[in-house]
Amino acid sequence: MDKFLNNPWAVKVVALLFAFLLYFAVHSAQAPTPKKPGESFFPTSTTDEATLTDIPVKSFYDDENYVVTGVPQTVNVTIKGPTGTVKKVRQVKDFEIYADMQNLKTGRHKVELKARNVADGLTLTINPSVTTVTIEEKTTKEFPVEVDFYNKNKMKDGYTPELPIINPKNVSVTGSKAVIDRIQNIKATINLEGVDQTVEKEAKLTVYDKDGNVLPVEVSPSVVKITVPVTSPSKKIPVKVDRKGSLPDGISISSLDISPGEVTVYGPQNVLDSLEFVEADEIDLSKIKDDTELEAGIKVPDGAKKVSPEKVKIKVKVDKEEEKKLKNVSIKTAGLNDSRDLEFLDPKSGKLDITAKGSTAAIEKLQPSDVELYVNVADLDDGEHNVKLEVNGPQNMTWSLPRQSIRVKISSQTTQNEKNNGQDEEEENHSEKDSQPS
């Protein structure tokens, strides 16, 4: 026995046996999970498996000269390996699936999909793992852009779209010759719902074949700018020029020409129907000393959208001022209905002398019948009133009146009849008394 223990190899063997016994004693105390038949007694690291869906596929080829079809956009990938690694890869998906076609020429080819940047200890299964691709030479061709309107029937009442302005009008389309030959049209769509003015927007282009299918091609540019002029109800309306100030002494306007004399007003029909004229900016007569040409802006009427043109030219010609006296011009009444009477109190004749001032040519042509002197009594009640005098006459003339107002008396015919009837009854009563015997 002593001889055995003095042998160094014997001591090493005994120590090894004791180490195994100690290891088994410790693990037995921890109540290990029972092993399945045929399973190794020694513990091993755990493995896991997972299937990842919709993993994108990258394509590598000469995309400047060729077009490739047939590569799937996504694939499913099954990963297997250590549990921790599988868990991490499921979250970050830091591998890449690709199809390498860099050394292939035109034609049909079977290409194996591969993976790279795969974590150590991980195996990947790609589904599908092989795809059939078609490689064709790339072709570029120009096509015109068309515009489709939708909801046209939902535009505001009276408004219609005109021909659209497209910038650029033509675009370049790049793809395989087979696909390029299938192109029927390239369209942008514009929504007209609620539109009542010119539309300006950028629109994305879509390429269609004759059956309305969208074709997978490159379009340059892929977005174009579209302007759709929108017309509304319109009406040509005369221009009225208001004046302020007075001309210098001794001169008068011989003519005032507006060019154009009418402008087109755009807007809702009910607004247009109510318009009789549009106003231009005022001209200041105090600044005019001789023949003058002015430019005046047109005011957009309330409720209208716009006017065209927005400005007019005004030519003012002046001449030496002359005077002409018109005698016994009758004063007319406006706003007096058939059920009322008007009596002139001052002047009782209902006539006045007035003086007209204007250019020599205008004064020579002026006739009494060209002038209308009147008072507006539409808003007056029965009774006596001072009423302002108004003059209607040829343009570019001024008027001098001996007075600014006259006095009139207004009475309703019903009231007058009752008064007359009362007077008649009173006279009858007096007659009866006079005829009775004393």
Automatic annotation (TrEMBL):
Signal peptide positions on this chain: 1-31
InterPro entries associated with the record: c-di-AMP_regulator, YbbR
Keyword Signal in record: yes
Compositionally biased intervals (Polar residues): 410-420
Matching Gene3D superfamilies: 2.170.120.30, YbbR-like domain
Entry keyword set: Signal
Residue span of region Disordered: 395-438
Protein's recorded name: YbbR-like domain-containing protein
Organism: Bacillus licheniformis (strain ATCC 14580 / DSM 13 / JCM 2505 / CCUG 7422 / NBRC 12200 / NCIMB 9375 / NCTC 10341 / NRRL NRS-1264 / Gibson 46)
